[in-house]
């Protein structure tokens, strides 16, 4: 189908490029690209895919827009807080380019729906922020023979690649055969992220997806691009396909999708309302602070920068990274309550102390977030 006059005018700067031209722009219009996640990475990727004229753009995300997203998730605005991310992102793309068809999948990607959804698209852009979904995308792409445009960010550092055994490159499991154990990797919510960083990495992902749709240009297949925004440095690592890879190797052991437990960005606290034996509530912590006779040590294991944002009077600060060297400040014969921002780090710290002889240690469920909700509404949320 020929481009109409409006499209020719809109994409004129593409059409002037011999590497794109009329034929290339038609390929972009015929392309079907799915972005998993409409967050920090998905925001710039989706915007530039729509601007480029990708004909069908899919968005899958099961989350709502939160005020803390707006520091980096530029596809959403303040009026979108509380809305479904898929709806907010679709509106933004429709405003940008009504020629692109936007399909929304308002759900979390799971082992039940991944193959069904991903097979509808030619190219998959991984805009996720957690390991379980990252492995799910990888495995589904390998099984469906789809290229996976990978990106990840942490604090000031980002990375990007095109993982595509179907095109001769490695998959994610060639690099990391198994995900880290739950709680081993801190999330952006715990460690922070420079707002502009996912914008840069997401733009790189969009560029790779566009070149894949064109079938032209140098690709990141077989290369991992590493970016340090703080030092403003790029470097590159060569990647090779692992013949022993469990899913794309010569004798793959994985022939179906595996659903991993959350390991990044999700609290390890039980989903039910009942307390785990190793947990206490913020109400319990309040009683411990107000009643010294209970002989309970309450310890804040967040970082000093977090403590400066919000803290509770009467609670000792021992950052988790300093816990090993300051362990003598804690009494193994007393009950110890550990508090962090959400309850995830305190759960990990609890395990560490128990391994070092502390018998009565409790993690404060929900951390300072729950304290702000239930005890002190004036405490800042971050």
Describe this structure in words.
The chain has 382 residues and is an alpha/beta fold. The chain has 2 domains: 208 residues, NAD(P)-binding Rossmann-like Domain (Rossmann fold); 96 residues, Oxidized Rhodanese, domain 1 (3-Layer(aba) Sandwich), CATH 3.40.250. Helix content is 32%, strand content 16%. It has 14 helices and 13 strands. The strands form 2 sheets. The protein has an 8-stranded mixed sheet, with helices on both faces. It has a 5-stranded parallel sheet with strand order 9-13-12-10-11. Strand 5 and strand 6 form a beta hairpin. Helix 4 runs parallel beside helix 5.
List keywords for this structure.
single chain; 382 residues; alpha/beta; Rossmann fold; Oxidized Rhodanese, domain 1; 2 domains; five-stranded parallel beta sheet; 14 helices
Question: In short, what is this structure?
Answer:
By secondary structure, the protein is an alpha/beta fold.
Quickly count the domains: 2
How many helices? The count is: 14
Describe the global form. Answer: elongated
What portion of the residues fall into strands of 2 or more residues? 15-25%
According to DSSP, the number of beta strands is 13
Relative helix content: 25-40%
> What is the topology, as strand order, of the major beta sheet?
3-2-1-4-5-6-7-8
CATH architecture of the largest domain: 3-Layer(aba) Sandwich
């Amino acid at each position: 189908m020929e481009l109409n006059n409006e499209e020719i005018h809109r994409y004129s700067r593409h059409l002037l490029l011999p590497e794109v031209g009329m034929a290339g722009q038609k390929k972009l219009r015929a392309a079907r690209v799915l972005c998993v996640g409409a967050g920090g990475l998905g925001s710039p990727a989706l915007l530039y895919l729509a601007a480029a004229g990708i004909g069908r753009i899919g968005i899958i995300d099961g989350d709502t827009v939160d005020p803390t997203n707006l520091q980096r998730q530029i596809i959403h605005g303040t009026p979108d807080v509380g809305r479904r991310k898929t709806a907010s992102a679709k509106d933004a793309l429709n405003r940008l380019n009504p020629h692109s068809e936007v399909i929304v999948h308002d759900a979390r990607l799971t082992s039940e729906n991944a193959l069904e959804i991903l097979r509808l698209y030619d190219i998959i852009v991984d805009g996720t922020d957690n390991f379980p979904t990252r492995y799910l995308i990888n495995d589904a792409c390998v099984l469906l023979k789809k290229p996976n445009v990978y990106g990840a960010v942490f604090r000031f550092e980002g990375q990007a690649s095109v993982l595509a055994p179907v095109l001769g490159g490695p998959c994610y499991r060639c690099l990391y055969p198994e995900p880290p154990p739950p709680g081993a990797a801190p999330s952006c919510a715990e460690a922070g992220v420079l707002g502009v960083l996912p914008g840069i990495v997401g733009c790189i992902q969009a560029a790779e997806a566009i070149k894949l749709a064109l079938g032209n240009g140098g690709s990141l297949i077989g290369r991992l691009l590493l970016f340090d925004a703080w030092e403003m440095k790029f470097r590159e690592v060569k990647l090779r396909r692992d013949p022993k890879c469990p899913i794309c190797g010569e004798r793959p052991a994985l022939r179906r999708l595996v659903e991993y437990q959350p390991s990044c960005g999700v609290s390890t606290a039980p989903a039910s309302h009942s307390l785990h034996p190793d947990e206490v509530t913020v109400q319990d912590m309040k009683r411990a602070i107000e009643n010294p006779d209970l002989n309970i040590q309450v310890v804040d294991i967040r970082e000093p920068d977090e403590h400066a944002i919000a803290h509770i009077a009467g609670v000792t600060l021992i950052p988790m990274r300093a816990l090993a060297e300051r362990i003598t400040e804690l009494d193994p014969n007393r009950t110890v309550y550990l508090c962090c921002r959400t309850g995830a780090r305190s759960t990990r710290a609890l395990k560490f102390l128990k391994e070092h002889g502390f018998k009565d240690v409790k993690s404060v469920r929900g951390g300072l977030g729950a304290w702000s909700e239930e005890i002190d509404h004036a405490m800042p949320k971050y």
